[in-house]
Write a structure and sequence with these properties.
This protein is mainly alpha-helical. It folds into 2 domains: about 70 residues; about 60 residues, no CATH class. Helix content is about 40%, strand content about 5%. It contains 3 helices and 2 strands. Strands 1-2 form a two-stranded antiparallel sheet.
Length: about 140
């Protein structure tokens, strides 16, 4: 691999590692708190929060801090979501070139975007609901 390819590979691997680290940590703390009965582990009262507090309120607050830290590390300032929300058999997908759109092949025919003031869908993609199972239709 070239030096540039090694740099890109390292960046992708480090990013994936941090995303996985944070999400697995969140999953693990949820399991330890008893949120998933399949992986239930014995907890003593007051482990997650104080005796008289909502036991999962502190957990959710910790998750929020973890996600905010991850978003800051990734330099993500906002989340995009589908509106209206997708149904159970769909997921929210951000169209990416060359899949599900992109510039037309070859030179542009006719006026450019600067001339018309119109924005093509592929120039400013918006999240869309897409089926979870093929065929992946919008």
């Amino acid at each position: 691999m070239t030096a540039s390819e090694k740099l890109l590979l390292g960046a992708v691997q480090d990013t994936m590692k941090e995303i996985c680290r944070v999400l697995v940590k969140m999953w693990g703390t949820g399991v330890e708190a008893g949120l998933d009965l399949r992986y239930w582990v014995r907890q003593t009262a007051g482990t997650v929060a104080g005796e008289n507090q909502d036991p999962f309120g502190a957990l959710v607050e910790n998750w929020r801090r973890e996600l905010e830290g991850l978003m800051e590390w990734l330099d993500w300032h906002m989340w995009v979501k589908c509106s209206p929300a997708c149904s159970d058999d769909e997921l929210c997908y951000m169209p990416t070139w060359p899949y599900f759109g992109g510039p037309p092949a070859g030179p542009s025919a006719g006026p450019t975007i600067e001339d018309t003031g119109e924005t093509k869908e592929w120039e400013r993609p918006m999240p869309k609901c897409i089926r979870k199972i093929a065929p992946y239709l919008f």
